[in-house]
Design goal:
The chain is mainly α. The protein contains 4 helices and no strands. Helix 1 runs antiparallel to helix 2.
Length: 56
């Protein structure tokens, strides 16, 4: 499932963030980062997926 999340993190960062942590603070931060610029949102989503962050 991780390779799928990485692909989503590259092309649709909010979807990857949602799949990883659900509707949490990290998801909303990712939405804001994507609005400010696609690359920061992508980096944040990749960080969530690759460090295996979980919903808190």
């Amino acid at each position: 499932m991780k390779p799928v999340k990485v692909i989503f993190a590259i092309f649709l960062p909010p979807v990857a963030a949602f799949m990883q942590v659900g509707v949490s603070v990290h998801f909303w931060v990712n939405i804001i980062l994507c609005i400010l610029g696609f690359v920061p949102g992508m980096v944040h989503a990749l960080w969530l997926v690759l460090t295996d962050q979980k919903k808190k």
